[in-house]
Design a protein that fits this description.
The chain is an all-beta fold. The protein has no helices and eleven strands. Strands 2, 4, 5, 6, 9, 10 and 11 form a seven-stranded mixed β-sheet that branches.
């Protein structure tokens, strides 16, 4: 299996910045895609950003575009999410996930999830 460990969450004032990181270990060869999701109580899980572990091509949700940036290291085992101009509505538990793409890369299935890291913006 793949283990994912997130870090970097915390409390910040509106307009501030945080950087989340996620370290993947174990059977990472089973995955070709990683991403960040967030969840708040009473709301559906939201996919924030994703990146191809080898190609580096990425996607970002409209709700955070221009404020959040996803990146990875050369091995594809370390994932980062740079979050700028944070808003109170960004308050959520943020989860790192890893999985595979299919249908010529147009679909993604996340099989592995981290425990999450809390981000609170006031």
């Amino acid at each position: 299996d793949v283990q994912l460990v997130e870090s970097g969450g915390g409390s910040v004032e509106a307009g501030g910045s945080l950087t989340l990181s996620c370290v993947a270990s174990g059977a990472t060869h089973k995955t070709d895609y990683m991403g960040w999701h967030r969840m708040t109580p009473g709301k559906q899980r939201e996919a924030i950003a994703g990146i191809d572990r080898s190609k580096g091509s990425s996607t970002i949700a409209a709700s955070v575009k221009g404020r959040f940036t996803i990146s990875k290291d050369n091995t594809g085992n370390i994932l980062c999410l740079q979050m700028n101009m944070l808003k109170p509505e960004d308050t959520a538990m943020y989860y790192c996930a890893a999985g595979r793409t299919y249908c010529s890369g147009t679909r993604r299935k996340y099989d592995y999830w981290g425990q999450g890291t809390q981000v609170t913006v006031s």
